[in-house]
Design a protein that fits this description.
11% of the residues lie in helices and 32% in strands. By secondary structure, it is mainly beta. The longest helix has 11 residues.
Length: 96
């Protein structure tokens, strides 16, 4: 597994790469959905809940960034990109 951080002109990028079995192209968006698993045969006892990547994408999105995955068989690269400046905070209005 390799973890790297690099500056971008407008923020930063974090990558996590490994040489595992990979993520099929048709599942690359689905794995960011709640309760999704690439290996459908794994149970919660031997795998996870399928919430980790959904939480990652939600937190990154809340900070104005993006999360995605690339790669193929034998290579998976998760990328998180965050802006240098946080997104503007919208003022909440109290009900009248």
């Amino acid at each position: 597994m390799t973890v790297a951080v690099r500056p971008l002109p407008d923020g930063a990028e974090l990558t996590v790469a490994d040489d595992g079995p990979g993520v099929p192209a048709e599942l690359r968006e689905e794995i960011f959905e709640r309760f999704s698993r690439v290996d459908k045969d794994r149970s919660r006892a031997s795998g996870g809940t399928g919430l980790g990547l959904a939480i990652v994408r939600a937190v990154v999105s809340a900070h104005g960034g993006t999360a995605g995955v690339d790669g193929g068989p034998g290579r998976t690269v998760f990328r998180i990109r965050l802006p240098a400046e946080p997104p503007p905070v919208e003022a909440e209005t109290a009900p009248s």
